[in-house]
Amino acid sequence: MIAADLLRHHLFPDFELLGGSGGLNRALTSVSVIDAPDVDRWMRGGELLVGSGYIFREDPGAFVDFLTRVNERNVAAVGIKLDRYHHQLPPGMVNLADQLALPLLSIPMHYRWTDIIEGVQTFILQERHRASCSLDEVGSFLEEGLDIKRILSTFASRLQRTLTVQCSQLGICNNFLPDGSVEDSEEAMRFIKTPVVQERGLPKRGQVLVNLELRNSGTLQWSASYRFLSDTPLTVHLWLSEGETVPSARQDRMVLRAMTLVRASALELAAISNRSAMKKERFFEALCLDIYNDPSIVEANMRELGIVLPKRGCVVMVSSADGSSPRWTPQNSVMSYRLADMWTGLVPVGDLEQMKREWDQKGQDLRVYVAVGGPVRNMEDVTRSYHEAKRTFTWLREFGLEPGAYAHDDLSLYALLDNLFRLPEAKGVYQRFFEPLLEDGPSSSRRSMPLKDLVRSLVSSDFNAKQCAKGLHLHYNTVRNHLDDLEEILQVDLSNPHHRLGLTLAFHIGNSYQKRGIKP
User: Fold this and answer.
1) Do 431 and 413 share a structural domain?
2) Contact present, 372 and 389 (Cβ < 8 Å)
3) What is the domain extent for residue 432?
4) Residue 186 host element (H or E)
5) Is 257 helix (H, G, I), strand (E, B) or coil?
6) What is the distance of C-alpha 245 from the center of its chain?
7) Boundaries of each CdaR GGDEF-like domain copy (predicted)?
8) Of 206, 240, 272, which residue sits at a domain end?
9) Is residue 440 part of a domain?
10) Rounded CA gap, 305 and 69, in Å?
11) Single pTM value for the model
């Protein structure tokens, strides 16, 4: 392995070379971490030396001298995780790296040292394995270190058929021959431009269109052409041998497998090509998690990324009720990132109540949860708003609420009500205002629903009988009769605000008991 391998897109796609490009051919044999100013004393040569610069935070100038010392120990490369303790390297450090031809790399903050050590060691082990094995013995098309053209050559060798592959995103337009050789784009285009004299379609393979094509280039040549036209334009032509007019099941499976790997490489490349967008996402995620130690580093990142904080905003988290990727997210976010099925963004807001109503409607229509944190007026507020949104999301799932938009302040009351059962008086309130409903009398047979279920609708409608009837899909007079029974059994007056409060508290205490399996 050499230092240049650290910049391969399949290994560390977002490492950035700051200086020392003249030394990219240095042999790399291991990884070590900068844990002391004199760590160079313990180097044996060939190391990738990584660190955050913590030990040089008080004296950045010593960082430059350190580079000279590790170069004398034949270190292969130095990687620095910026934005923890240094937003920029000390002046002259990049120029010195160029003079020394010592590769100097910027490591994004989200990397753990174990991620880097594992990646490098895996690559080195694979190199050793390939050195002692033939290509056929490698046997895995997914191992890191195989480039996509080599993978396609292996497929052609296994199939013993020529493959003509076009993928503009990866710059591929080649013939891959059964002997493992690769012909250039001129030969591939000669085949592609050969007139098709006969064509017939085969059943689609998902999103892949498949045609049989007979080409005439002086001799007749059948090929099976597989075309994927969606997010990654990709075409694979499988040349059939003499006498073959249809690909076999094995050939069909292997071509589709090859297309999957090519698409994966293209999508991976697309994901890492927009470094500015990716850095913006990482910055926002780190800001939410309160990773930055110095406000000046936050301000410097904002300037470099062109981020303008809205006058008033909030952190919003969106997730689908079924656990899939959210079907909707706010479109005007200043910054955002995705993690699994969760979208998190900083969204500018004018009239927060109006936006919550709009988001609530979207949430109900598209079955998504929208958790809204508190107001953000400066960068210090982002972390607090994020944690409020996260806590809100936890509550709305815990309370089993319907999809929609919920603000932290709204659900704080739910959290308070959910913990009422811990009070010494809770059991008495429950026994007085709710327990009798669980032992309904003889008249219950004439009711369309248990009174305890009526209480749920009554509390959610703020004791409005008409709204309660509408929510239950019952006639208003039927609900009125049920309410009379409720007053009689509990010996309460629903027009009395104290009785209403008691019934509301008892309902929430009962929910808490039920959720936790507590017998009062």
Assistant:
1) no
2) yes
3) 419-516
4) helix 185-192
5) helix
6) 44
7) 333-392
8) 272
9) yes
10) 34
11) 0.49
